[in-house]
Amino acid sequence: MTAPVLLVLGAGPGIGLSVARLFAVDGFATVLACRFPEEAEPMAEKLRGEGFDAEGVGVDLSDPADVGEVVTGVGERHGRIDVLHFNPSVFREADPLQLSIPELIEDFTVGAAALLPAVQAARPFLSEGARVLVTGSAAADKPWHRAASLGIQKAAVRNLVTSLDATLAPAGIRAVAVQVEGVLGEGAFTRDRVAAALHAAAVRPADGWTPHVSYDG
Q: Considering just the CA atoms, what is the radius of gyration of the chain in Å?
């Protein structure tokens, strides 16, 4: 029987890598996906150096076809996807009087809409007990006006998680967005503490499941 598989979309050296490490400790094979494979592979190499099974791949989250191809490829190589962690966001400093529609759509596509083709492609490889995990943000409720697109991304992806969870629940697959209620890197919001909150939300028992979890430190 093959090891369970974690796929992190929008992986980075902060939360994405820390979440991957926690699941690796649980016995998962981990796949770290970011814009370019040459960025992803060093993170995977770091986990392999710690004795874990890890690989790095490139994915263009602005391209639904590429998202589908990469996710399908991971599922076919491993025969399963047990946790799909959607971690991207786009920070663009532009207030509503500066932000253009093309810029908003570009940011929204990566930070929220890309979750759709990712889950659609992953669905054949998700079985009962699988989880979709999304990194949320307080910006969903308290956006900073100077980065208007970020709040839109986070509000939208949280809403989408609600629909995904309801859709997947009959198959025993659940989705959750963890809303991080603080500034990353400060106090209780270090990458390791936030990663622990994300991990804990994903491994909860299905009884009493909620599609939204707030981490306030």
A: 16
